[in-house]
Write a structure and sequence with these properties.
This protein is mainly α. The protein is built from eight helices and no strands. The chain has a single domain (3-208), classed as Up-down Bundle (Dehydroquinate synthase-like, alpha domain), CATH 1.20.1090. It is 67% helix and 0% strand. Bound molecules: fe (ii) ion.
Length: 212
């Protein structure tokens, strides 16, 4: 975990990497249904720490301790320690892979960054307890409200320059049809990766919200 390996990594790209780290843990947390008290507690701590670290790096981009922390969080996010046994899955990641599959100018974390808020809005109806639990911890406030969560995310996105739209990548409404067809293909071919399926109406809605 040598922090010097990311010494020259541009801060905007590092912000996107933070979103990849966060979503690797956030997706199973949100979609999970087992109690998994230990893993969920670890996930909350790691996610908040990733947010705190990228914020601090914005002020001190050359701080090697903070860059080292990002490396450690990145490894831990993928280790399974915060995600195994929750029953959750990586639904958002699959949506992103579809977009990057059609548009190789969309990097993986940029796609995740753009899709995260629309996907969370879709998941609110199904998993509001999990979303509230996570953001109450992040905001350090009991029973945080839906509006507060999305206001917080709006501010966080602006603060670390995260992207919200696929428009600049040359993606528009006519591409949604291909994304929906690919999703249908993937869910049929690899059902074990999709314990739940997003219905077509909601899938279109998610992609529409990425075209601001
Ligand atoms: Fe990822």
């Amino acid at each position: 975990m040598d922090p010097l390996l990311s010494k020259t990594l541009d801060l905007n790209y590092l912000s996107l990497c933070a979103i990849d780290i966060i979503t690797h843990m956030l997706e199973p947390f949100i979609t999970g249904f087992y109690k998994a008290e230990i893993q969920r507690g670890i996930a909350k701590f790691f996610i908040k720490k990733t947010i705190d670290t990228i914020r601090a790096l914005k002020k001190e981009p050359n701080n090697t301790d903070l860059r080292g922390n990002m490396h450690i969080l990145s490894g831990l996010a993928l280790s399974g320690i915060a995600t195994r046994g929750t029953g959750g899955f990586h639904e958002l990641h699959w949506l992103e892979h579809i977009v990057s599959g059609f548009f190789d100018n969309v990097s993986h974390p940029a796609g995740l960054s753009i899709l995260l808020i629309p996907w969370l809005k879709y998941r609110w109806e199904k998993n509001k307890e999990n979303i509230t639990d996570l953001f109450s911890f992040i905001l350090q406030k009991e029973n945080v409200k839906k509006e507060e969560i999305f206001e917080y995310l709006d501010k966080f996105y602006k603060e670390i320059n995260l992207e919200r739209s696929f428009r600049k990548y040359g993606i528009n409404e006519k591409d949604i049809d291909n994304f929906v067809k690919e999703y249908a293909f993937l869910t049929a071919k690899f059902p074990k990766f999709f314990p739940e399926k997003i219905d077509e109406k909601n899938l279109i809605k998610i992609f529409e919200q990425t075209l601001l």
